[in-house]
Amino acid sequence: MILNNVTQILNTYPMPEKTIIDIWLIEDNEVYRESISDLVNELDQVQCSRRFTTVEEAIYELDASEPPNLIFCDIGLPGMSGIEGVQKFGELIPEVPVVMITNFDGDQQIFDAICAGAIGYLLKTASNKEIQDAVFEAVNGGSPINPKIAHKILKMFNKYTPKKQDYNLSKREKEILGLVVNGKTYEAIGEVLFISYHTVDYHIRNIYKKLQVHSRTDAVAKALKEQLI
To answer: Does domain 171-225 correspond to CATH entry 1.10.10.10?
Structure first.
């Protein structure tokens, strides 16, 4: 009797289904493709539901299927490259993270992939555990990147980040420029720094010359844009 009641309750209020992390894999090497697919499918509540040899096949599949929770993608693919694929997926399914799994460890490929929108970058030499951990890290908002690649990325961004230019402004000129940005008049600047109106005017003329601007508005805009103060 009790067993029948329990069965009736379970049938009336079925247990909710577990959330499955759905992964698409784009890899043209059949052996490696099957290896990664099997590795992912070993995980609880994770499935590699689609396997493709080209980016174009995956894009075509988007018309017929729900998008996945995560895409693993190689770079060197026939047809559209993996980097081009990341850009395309960013346009079509921007909510889906893409992690590159590739043999390429050159600076330019890494930089291009990250700039294109890849949230992670793994080498095919990564261990099984690293690849499995990358699944959960990526779907939870992380960026699975091994330390060697992360170090390269930091070096590249430092290289491409323009160096801050100070225009050889003196300490006094920076003080005055800061007061100009804060809206102080020539008279007010003189009172704050205990210098005459004419001295303030002299410094501001030099500031304009060094910044290569011709007005107070341009000087303020440049100071704020280039974080000169």
So the answer is: yes
